[in-house]
Each structure stands twice: as C-alpha cells, then as structure tokens.
Amino acid sequence: MIKQASSFGRNGVQDYVFTRATAVIIVLYVLWIVGFMLFKSDGSFIQWKSFFESNFNKVFTIITLISILIHAWIGLWQVFTDYVKNTLLRAILQFFVVTILLIYVIYGFFILWGA
C-alpha cells in the first residue's frame, strides 16, 4: 500500500500544478504593476491611491496575495518535509509559517478593504 506523504490528501502533481498556476498569477500581477509604473504613473501618491481604489486592482491584489500564500506554503512544506526530520519541530515550524502567511493575507485585506 502506498501512503501519501503530504497532508490533506494532496499529491505531487497537485502541488506542481498549484505552484505553476500561482507563479503565473504572480508574474501577471508583477507585469501589471510594472506596466502601470512605466506607462501611467508619475509616482505620485494620488495616482497610486486612485490605482488601488479600483475594485479590479483590489481583487487582483488579493488573488495575488492568496497565490503567494499557496506558493510559499507548498515550497516551505516541501523544504520542511525534506530537511526537518524531527516531527515535533517540523509541526511547530509549519504552524508558525501558516500563522505568518495568514496574518499577511488578513493584513492585506485590511489594507485594501479596510477603513
């Protein structure tokens, strides 16, 4: 019987697909921001503020933040399972990484949609 090494029933193919899909989203977001900086922005605070007041940019930013969370989690999970052999230490590290990543996304929501 083959036992899956990853949690939640994931497998290597799903990790591969998620990693590549999130990388594409991140690259598209970087190109979007660089394009804005090169062609639309004079660098003023007012232009940046109006750029991020658009619902499209807010949603695109949140999708990118979530993609970064998924991308980072898969990468760090693989590093932890490959190099941290102590199960308790690995669980503690994974808990802290998940906590920090969730705080990043919550903070991103607060910045974009907050008062």
TrEMBL record:
Pathway: Carbohydrate metabolism; tricarboxylic acid cycle. Heme binds at residue 71. It is found in: Cell inner membrane. Pfam families: Sdh_cyt. Keywords: Cell inner membrane, Cell membrane, Electron transport, Heme, Iron, Membrane, Metal-binding, Transmembrane, Transmembrane helix, Transport, Tricarboxylic acid cycle. Its main location: membrane. The keyword Transmembrane helix applies. One of its GO terms (biological process) is cytochrome complex assembly. This is Succinate dehydrogenase hydrophobic membrane anchor subunit. It comes from Paraphotobacterium marinum. The gene is sdhD.
